Amino acid sequence: MRTETGAAPPARTPTTAFRTGAWAWILTGTGHLTLAAVMGLRPEDPARARATAAMRAYTVEVPGVRRSLRDIDLGMSLVMAAALVFGGAVCLLVARSAPALVTRSRSLSGLALAASLVVLGLSVLLLPAPPIVLFAVAAAAFGRALATARPSPPPPPPPPAE
Question: What's the DSSP call for residue 65?
Fold first, then answer.
């Protein structure tokens, strides 16, 4: 979108970039939840069945609750996927309802960038290509939102008392 002067409105750039990062989080979480559902519906191959049985056989007690290693692994995975979806949704709501938090403050974009960089690093070490690509997109988008945000100038000082 261009203004009459031909310049892009300054408030759109950080907000659009911020929304792109939020959608990357949502897509990552949704993709993971979808993959988990599809994998759960597939018949298990023998090697996977043996690994799953071994994980179910090993239990851990975490403050008063006993869970199998499989339950803990699946639970953490699904909780993190759901958290990504809801975290991305919160970012979209903030960008829509309180755009000044994105366009005039660097705090939220900086926090989202830091989170994206942490999970990108972990993804590079431990996960396949789709989350690596999506977290790289999120990091680039939140980085752009951070770089293009223009903090509001401080309010003028009050007039001197007479």
Answer: E
